Amino acid sequence: MGLFGLGKTPGLGIDINTDAVKALELLPQGDSYQITRVAELPLPKNLITDDEITDIEQLSKTLQQLRKKSGSTVKEVVAAVSGSQAISKQIAVGNELDDEAIAEKIESEAEALIPFPIAEVRYDFESLGEHPTLPGQQRILVTATRTVSVDSRVEALEQAGFKVKIMDVDSQAILRSCNYLLPHLAPEIVASPLPVLVLDISITAVQTIVIAQGEVTFTRFQTGGLQPLLKALDDNGNGEYREILARLRAGETGSDSSLIIQDSLTNLWSQVSRGIQIYQSNAPKKGFAGVILVNTGAMLPMLSDYIDQQIDEPVLSLNPFDHFELADSYSHLRAHGPRFVEVLGLALRSFTPWHT
Q1: Residue 120 DSSP label
Q2: Rounded distance between C-alpha atoms, residue 146 and residue 150, angstroms
Q3: I need a surface site. Which of 27, 165, 209, 329 has the fewest CB within 10 A?
Q4: CA pair distance 301, 192, nearest whole angstrom
Q5: Which residues form the SHS2 domain (predicted)?
Q6: Inter-axis angle of helices 147-159 and 56-70, nearest 10
Q7: What is the DSSP pairing of strand 290-294 with strand 315-317?
Q8: Helix (H, G, I), strand (E, B) or coil at 139
């Protein structure tokens, strides 16, 4: 199996994150889809550190439990590696080149394209269509990651009884969800000629993603995320953040926590604004059509409100469950929708072609 591959079985995405694993199953329904299965299970602390799996056997056991909890019988899955572990570059090649010739060209130019020895990486490529300024040329998106990053996830999934048909990249999965959801949930943002700023704020990291004309044009990954805030509010020091997050979502912070929260939000915004500055220093257009929040950070009203105060553009916490109907048995997950943006993109990935 290459880094990527075209899966024939529709619709099951598995998101392996630092704090939880999630499953989401889609079925085609006319020109849309229906969410038929969705589940989430927490992961033990430090099971995934710096996006590297420290205990494959334990992760596999949790994935087995996730499979049972979801009730899905689909075995062929789409998963992803972190954007911090992958690189993507665009190259121009002649329209006449077939897949084999393109692969040969990539390998011949691997030293310039991929900052790792070619023997240590998995890579794949996708044609993005005709090059806008070079007649007779097509744009090719080359994505590569270290083999160990792919193999550890594949091993855990296969031990859990899954068959990995596609290994994607988290930023591309988020892109796919945004491209599908925003025309329904925020058509005014899609109608703008300006790019969209996506802030993927998890417990352990912040990923800044810029989407222009339906493509990722900029990414920046920084460690930290919500963890400094949660640590500061963790009076017991046990690193169990679920109760703290529940209080923050409900606005039950207490007056003695206000200064801690304010300082943490200020520091988090400093991270984000630095990424924005780096992007805009070379951007052809200034400003954004809107700011899209995804992941755990998007579930915190105080964070959304704070970002809204710092930026002129509209701010939207993206919740896939505002578009898709959920069965009553999954209604408890509705408020957690921003955490399912990536796994939705992975499930959607089952319906789009890539190389085998």
Answers
A1: G
A2: 7
A3: 329
A4: 25
A5: 11-178
A6: 50
A7: parallel
A8: strand
Q: Output Rg (C-alpha) for the chain, integer angstroms.
A: 20
pLDDT tens-digit series, residues 105-143? 888 877 777 777 777 777 778 787 888 888 899 988 887
pLDDT in tens, 207-248: 999 999 898 989 999 988 999 999 888 877 666 788 889 889
Using alpha carbons, select from 119, 32, 37, 43 the residue that is nearest to residue 70: 37
Lookup: tokens for 125: 């490529």
3-class SS at 217? strand
Q: Is 287 left (phi over 0), alpha (psi -120 to 50) or beta?
A: left
Closest CA to 218 of 120, 88, 340: 88
pLDDT in tens, 41-80: 999 888 888 778 899 999 999 999 999 999 999 999 999 9
Q: What is the CATH number of domain 187-313?
A: 3.30.420.40
Kindly list the domain boundaries of the chain, sorted by start residue.
Answer: 86-146, 187-313
Dist. CA 43–CA 234, nearest whole Å: 19
Q: How is residue 120 written in tokens? A: 């240590």
Pick the closest to residue 42 from 352, 353, 346, 336 (CA basis): 336
* Closest to 41 in 3D by CA, of 73, 70, 12, 13: 70
Give 108's contacts (C-beta < 8 A, 6+ positions apart).
none
Of the candidates 34, 8, 35, 32, the residue with the CA atom closest to the CA atom of residue 24:
35
Per-residue b or e along 172-208, where b marks 16 or more CB atoms closer than 10 Å to that residue's CB: bbbbbbbbbbbeebbeebbeeeebbbbbbbbbbbbbb
User: What is the model's pLDDT at position 312?
Assistant: 93
The model scores a pTM over 0.85: yes
State what percent of residues in the chain have pLDDT above 70.
93
Mean confidence (pLDDT) of the chain: 88
CB–CB of 178/295 below 8 Å?
no
The region that residue 158 occupies, defined by phi over 0 for left and psi between -120 and 50 for alpha, beta otherwise, is alpha
